[in-house]
Design a protein that fits this description.
Layout lengths: L1 E5 L6 E8 L3 H7 L4 E3 L13 E4 L6 E5 L4 E5 L4 H8 L4 E2 L11 H6 L7 H4 L6 E7 L5 E4 L5 H7 L8 E8 L1 E2 L4 E9 L2 H10 L5 E6 L11 E8 L2 H4 L17 E2 L11 H14 L4 E7 H5 L5 E2 L10 E9 H17 L7 E6 L26 E9 L4 H14 L3 E2 L9 H7 L2 H11 L8 H6 L4
Parallel strand pairs: 2-4, 3-4, 15-17
Antiparallel strand pairs: 1-2, 5-6, 6-10, 7-11, 8-9, 8-10, 12-14, 12-16, 13-14, 13-19, 18-20, 18-21, 19-20
Helix pairs in contact: 5-13, 10-11
Bound molecules: flavin-adenine dinucleotide.
C-alpha cells in the first residue's frame, strides 16, 4: 500500500511502498529500485524513493568490549539506544550529530559530523568494520584495510552502493554524563572567529549566529565549547552522587503545523534578539548534562512543524578555510539584505579530515570517502521555510558557495541541481564505485535521481 513519506524538512513528500528488511530478497529478484531509510532525520529526499526499505527493525546489539569500547551492532540501532545503555556504563559516542534520533547506518551513510569535527573527525573515522549487503544479495565485509573501496563507497555514500547490516566502531570513555560548558558572546563575526581561535583546543565547539544582524553586528552570536566533565569537576555539585545518570526531562510537543504567517522576519528578529540578550556577560561557565549540550532540540518533539505544512529546507554549506571568512560574510550579508531570517543558524569550523587518524587503518592512514561532506573550513547550516521566493534566493547563495569553492551537505539537501553537485563534489570518483557495487542502479533515491548519480 502506498504511504505518504517525508523526511525531517517535510519537503518533499512522496508516495512510497514501504517494505520491511526481510523483503529485500523479493525486491532484488524483481529488480525494483529502492533505497533504505533509517529514522528519516535527513532533511530532504536522501532516503526517499518509490520503494523504501525500513531499516529501523534491523536493530540488535551484538557485542561490546568493556576494555576497548568497541561496539558491534546492527545498522538500525539508534544513537539514543546506544546512549541509554552505554552512558551509565561510562561510554559515549565518538561523534554525534545534533539529534540522537538517527540510526547507526544513517550516521555512516551521511558520514555525520559533530561539534568535535576539528579534532575527532566525522563518524567514519571511528568505524573499523562493516557487514554490507550488495544489491546482488552478496554479503561482503569491509574495513579501512579490507575491501577498502566498499568502505569508501558506503561511508558518506548515501545508501547508494550497499546496505549496512552491521557495524563495529569505538565508543569513548567518559567519567560522567556531564559537560563543562563555556559560552562566549561574540559581538560580530570577527570576534566570533577570535573566540574560535582561542578555543581551538576545546573538544567541542559550535556557535549559534544571529543571521539578521547587520552592519557592525554582522555575524554576532554565541559560541559554545565543551569538555566531558571529570568526577573531580562534579565534586562540588549535586551531580556528584550519580555522575553517570541524568534526569529525564519533560518533553514538549508541537501538536500541529504552525500557520505560515507565524514565522516571518519580525518573529525571527525577536527570537534572535531574545537568544542573544539572554546571555549576560561575555564568558560564562557551567556544568550541563549531555542531553542539554548535544541535543537541545530533541526535547521538543516535532519541532519541524513550526515551519508549517509546506515544510522547510536546511541549507548547509562548507567553504574552504582560505577564503571561507569572505564567503561566509557575503552569504550572511545576502540573508540579512533579503530578510530571509532563519531561527536555526549553526556555525562551526571543520578540521582537516586528512589530518585526523582513521581508526583500524595502518598507522591511522586516512581513507578518503568521495561523498563525505566535511572539509577544512567554515560551515553554516540555516533553515528556511518553503515559500515562493526561496528557490531563486538559494540559487544566489549557491553562486557564492561555488565562487568560494564550497559545497552543500547531501544529508540536508532537497533541491541542489545536478550541475552544481557535479561541479562541487568528486562525482566521477564515486561513480566508479557505484559501477563496481551497483552497476544496475538498484539502489536509487529521489535525491540520486535528481543529482544524476547513476552507474
Ligand atoms: C535536528 C537535527 C540535527 C542534525 N544535526 C546534524 C549534525 O550536527 N551533523 C550531521 O552530520 N548531521 C546532522 N543531522 C542530519 C542527520 O544526522 C543525518 O541526516 C543522518 O543521516 C540521519 O540518519 P537517519 O537514521 O535518520 O537516516 P535517514 O535520514 O533515513 O537516511 C539518511 C541516509 O542514510 C541511508 N541509510 C539509512 N539506512 C541505511 C542502511 N541500513 N544502509 C545503507 N544506507 C542507509 C539512506 O539511504 C540515506 O541516504 C541532523 C538532523 C536533524 C534532524
Amino acid at each position: 500500500m502506498l504511504k505518504k513519506v517525508a523526511n525531517w524538512g517535510n519537503f518533499p513528500v512522496v508516495n512510497a511502498n514501504i517494505y520491511s528488511f526481510n523483503r529485500l530478497n523479493h525486491l532484488r529478484q524483481t529488480k525494483v529500485p529502492f533505497i533504505v531509510r533509517g529514522l528519516g532525520r535527513s532533511y530532504g529526499d536522501a532516503s526517499l524513493s518509490d520503494n523504501i526499505i525500513d531499516g529501523t527493525k534491523n536493530n540488535h546489539f551484538l557485542e561490546f568490549d568493556e576494555q576497548t569500547g568497541l561496539l558491534t551492532c546492527e545498522g538500525g540501532v539508534s544513537l539514543e539506544e546506544i546512549l541509554d545503555i552505554f552512558v551509565p556504563r561510562g561510554w559515549f559516542l565518538p561523534v554525534t550529530p545534533g539529534t540522537k534520533f538517527v540510526t547507526v547506518a544513517g550516521a555512516i551513510s551521511s558520514d555525520v559530523h559533530g561539534k568535535n569535527h576539528h579534532c575527532e573527525g566525522s563518524f567514519h573515522k571511528h568505524v573499523i568494520w562493516m557487514e554490507v549487503e550488495l544489491p546482488t544479495g552478496k554479503i561482503v565485509e569491509c574495513s579501512p584495510q579490507k575491501n577498502v573501496d566498499l568502505f569508501r563507497a558506503i561511508c558518506g555514500g548515501m545508501g547508494l552502493c550497499g546496505i549496512i547490516k552491521k557495524a563495529k566502531f569505538y565508543l569513548k570513555k567518559i567519567e560522567t554524563a556531564y559537560i563543562k560548558q563555556k559560552t562566549y558572546k561574540a559581538k560580530n563575526l570577527d570576534e566570533m572567529l577570535e573566540y574560535f581561535e582561542q578555543s581551538k583546543n576545546a573538544t567541542y565547539t559550535v556557535a549559534w549566529m544571529d543571521c539578521l544582524a547587520r552592519g557592525k553586528s554582522l555575524g554576532r552570536g554565541i559560541l559554545f565549547t565543551g569538555e566531558h566533565a571529570t568526577l573531580e569537576d562534579l565534586k562540588s555539585t549535586k551531580f556528584y552522587k550519580n555522575p553517570l545518570s541524568i534526569k529525564k526531562k519533560i518533553k514538549f510537543n508541537v501538536p500541529f503545523y504552525f500557520p505560515s504567517f507565524v514565522l516571518n522576519p519580525l518573529t525571527v528578529k525577536l527570537f534572535n534578539f531574545l537568544v542573544y540578550n539572554s546571555h549576560i556577560g561575555k564568558i560564562k561557565e557551567s556544568i550541563v548534562d549531555y542531553d542539554k549540550f548535544f541535543y537541545p532540540l530533541d526535547s521538543i518533539h516535532n519541532w519541524n512543524r513550526i515551519y508549517g505544512k509546506k515544510g522547510f529546507v536546511q541549507y548547509q554549506f562548507v567553504l574552504p578555510e582560505e577564503n571561507g571568512y569572505e564567503g561566509t560574510k557575503k552569504i550572511i550579508q545576502e540573508i540579512a539584505k533579503n530578510k530571509m531570517g532563519s531561527f536555526l543558524v549553526v556555525f562551526k569550523l571543520f578540521g582537516n579530515p586528512d589530518k585526523i587518524p582513521q581508526k583500524g587503518s595502518k598507522n591511522g592512514k586516512s581513507v578518503s570517502c568521495p561523498l563525505s561532506f566535511p572539509e577544512e573550513g567554515y560551515t553554516l547550516a540555516l533553515d528556511f521555510p518553503v515559500e515562493k521566493k526561496l528557490p531563486e534566493f538559494l540559487e544566489v547563495l549557491d553562486q557564492i558557495v561555488q565562487e568560494y569553492g564550497g559545497r552543500l551537505y547531501l544529508a540536508k539537501d532537497s533541491r541542489m541541481s545536478k550541475e552544481f553537485f557535479y561541479s562541487t563534489y568528486p562525482v566521477e570518483e564515486f561513480l566508479k564505485l557505484k559501477r563496481k557495487f551497483d552497476p544496475e542502479n538498484i539502489l536509487k533515491s529521489k535525491q540520486s535521481e535528481r543529482l544524476g548519480i547513476y552507474a
